[in-house]
Amino acid sequence: MISWIMAVALVLPAAVLPTTVAVPDAEPPAREQIMAVPPELQARLRDEIVANHPSQNERLQQLVEFMFEPQGLGMAYRGDATYTVEQTYATREANCLSFTLLFLALAREAGLDAYPQVIEETLGWDQRDSTIYRNIHINAGVRIGGQRYTVDVASDSVIARQHPAPVSDQRLLALYYNNQAVELLAQNRVKPALAYMAEAIDLDPDYAAHWSNAGVIYLRNGDPAEAERAYTRALTLAPEHAGALFNMVGLYERIGDHNREAEFHRRLERVQQRDPFHHFLLAIDFEKNGNYRRAVEHYQRAIRLYPDEHRFYFALAKAYVQLGDTRRASRALLRAQAHSDGATRDLYQAKLESLRKPPDRPDIAH
Asked: What stretches in the chain show pLDDT beneath 50?
């Protein structure tokens, strides 16, 4: 059995890896370089947004349009594109972290009160070789008077239990170095990965995910003792950190300490049983293997733990259709509709109408 090693990375759910992978520099950039705005971009911001739009609300609206519209920057999403502001401007590609770095830098140049935000628990995994990456998500917040706004490159693609929480610039920069370290690890460039992770920990030593990821890199570097120390530090900071617990299980299995392996496996299971995303992913796995009854069980557990996510109900409805239970499928779709709005709500209405059309077996694939 393969012992998977988990590491946190800031890629979005279901991101398609490009054929040409973004390659981080071997040496970490200086901290002040990460959010430095190139003079050409400063001039465009000044001429196209600041000069013509005196109010902060207007500047925010124009800046968002400038980021996305073809006549502005025309930004495109790319899951592995963890770049500095200068690199993002040059490539016009960004993941959620790079987009946030760029937006914050420009918003502040435009006189807006902008800050980074993080959603720690999202539904999204990426697997490459023998490493599993669990995703978090980052976006930007803006305060104007008594109002707060969120600017997000992919809010519709993220399933999250929590609202975004403001974090410091220090954490934001540490996440940049963390992300680059994880990408270097994926490319088997272990020594540079260690250098980037050292920067992340130096900036933000109280963030458990950095220590868990550092342990992954130490283990890949052939140092299980240092990996154990890093995982232990992560669990001291966050005793229920699923990534560090998962990594401890794999480490003790690897070195043959079965008592400690069993201990951490029990701790991990207790955490996972309370995690709706864990049950949702298990349900998807059962569904892929044709075990629709077990899929229904785990979709229901996910819903009990997090009853406000419309995609959980939609997935449950699809599993019921596979079991031939259109009555329960209709009820699940009604719940999905109740927890959604806009075009998504209309989609669920169309699926409901399809279910109610006899005699053919309905198809609600999405």
From this structure: 1-21
